[in-house]
Amino acid sequence: MENALILSHIEAGVLTITLNRPDRLNSFNDEMHHQLSEALTVAERDDSVRCVLITGAGRGFCAGQDLNDRNVSVDQAPPDLGLSVERFYNPLIRRLSALPKPIVCAVNGVAAGAGAALAMACDIVVAADNASFIQSFCKLGLVPDSGGSWYLPRLAGHARAMGMALLGDKISAQQALEWGMIWQVVAATELADHTQSMAKQLATQPTYGLGLIKKAMYSSASNTLDQQLDLERDLQRLGGRSADYREGVSAFFAKRPPNFSGKQS
């Protein structure tokens, strides 16, 4: 695609999505949102896709919203930023959490504002050792969006989330790891190969069951213990009826590697 702001390709069951505005640190404009939405539609509808890998082109992962698209002078009416959140960012985060396939995020540089929230909305986040995370909204008189105010307290804890949101300090990849915001830190030179290998391994696993795990984990944030126990029962029932469960048990007793189809039946 000419002027592709999102690059995507499928290999070995992995849909790799690359944010492709390196000259703007992969910050979002409306067209980039539209192209990312199209790529996620492929992830949702194509059964050959069993894992998604999201990364950025160039030296940054994503700097959030491109402020050139939201600039306003003193003699203009203020923009409705809530409309942008409702139209683009909220649907994006909801789609990522609802996608019944694992999502790996390779944070190859700075992840700021909505870019940091995008990373945290993925299921497994691996960052380069030179990457960083910034909640930059406070510098503009704004509020963390794209789920940032939901993910941060749950991942890093209330005190750290408040510090990040109110001070806007840059957090290193290693610090993000120690705070529980991400899964792993690797050398920048190894990030692409490492995350591709991880995604390809996930693509060989029981995809339907991994989708059930996602549902259980995300539901736990709002469920009581009793509700979560009931949900676990219901999801376990579904998993136990799947073709991959039958294959997993058969392979276990035959002492052979399983050959998962990734399908429910």
UniProtKB/TrEMBL annotation:
Keywords for this protein: Isomerase
Chain coiled-coil ranges: none
Bilayer-crossing regions: none
KW Isomerase (keyword) present: yes
Keyword presence, Metal-binding: no
Gene Ontology BP annotations: phenylacetate catabolic process
The protein's Enzyme Commission number: 5.3.3.18
Molecular function terms from GO: isomerase activity
Family listed: Belongs to the enoyl-CoA hydratase/isomerase family.
Protein name: 2-(1,2-epoxy-1,2-dihydrophenyl)acetyl-CoA isomerase PaaG
Highest classification ranks of the organism: Bacteria, Pseudomonadati, Pseudomonadota, Gammaproteobacteria, Enterobacterales
Gene: paaG
